[in-house]
Amino acid sequence: MRMLLLLALLPVLPVLTACADAFGDQAAQGPGTALGEFHVVGTQTSNTCGEGTLGATRLWEFDVELARDEGALFWDNGAAVIEGVLDEDQMGFSIDGRVVADMRSGDAPPGLPCSVERRDRARGELGSASDDVRRFEATLSYEFTPTAGSRCEDLVAGELSVAPVFAALPCGMAYDLKAKRSALPPE
């Protein structure tokens, strides 16, 4: 059950197909000028959460639709449109997000409440300052930290763990993303 809760939160990575909700698949009509659909290949560059934690894999592929407006980049993963900041050069961008998952309520065994905050950060560059963007590159990181007052020791591999979810907490993982446009924006 704990694993399912985290997987639902983690959308864009394989781990985060877990992180896929945050950065994953599907098309939608959103704000701004559409730039098209992009096929993204992510290569894991670091992982202190443990091999395979939350379904994370070393290679991860997904599709995303992008749009831009004055000072904003819109990342549509099919589940939500996430607004990021577009730099003055109209190419550099950053996206920050945060979600908290209740891993265990206070009355559920084996113990005290546990919730984990996931912070998502993407920083990248579009291949063009025009609306004819054919590619982009970015780095994407996820950081997991127990919230204040949480008791999550049983979720970490060790003596107190019954069914560990993490090798360590806090922990994080990062991906290098390379994307190519796979579909033009709708007319």
Structure explained in plain terms:
This protein is mostly beta strands and 187 residues long. 8% of the residues lie in helices and 47% in strands. It has two helices and eight strands. An eight-stranded antiparallel beta barrel has the order 1-2-3-4-5-6-7-8. Helix 1 runs parallel beside helix 2. The longest helix is centred in the N-terminal third of the chain and has 8 residues. The N and C termini lie far apart (44 Å).
**Largest sheet: spatial strand order:** 1-2-3-4-5-6-7-8
Report how far the terminal alpha carbons are from each other: 44 Å
Query: Which percent range fits the helix content?
Result: under 10%
Question: Counting H and I runs of at least 4 residues, what is the number of helices?
Answer: 2
Give Rg in angstroms: 17 Å
Helix and strand element order: HHEEEEEEEE
Give the beta-strand count: 8
Low-confidence parts: 1-22, 24-28
| Beta fraction | over 45%
Helix-strand makeup class:
mainly beta
- Determine the oligomeric state from the structure: single chain
Outline the biggest β-sheet: 8 strands, antiparallel, barrel
Note the overall shape. elongated
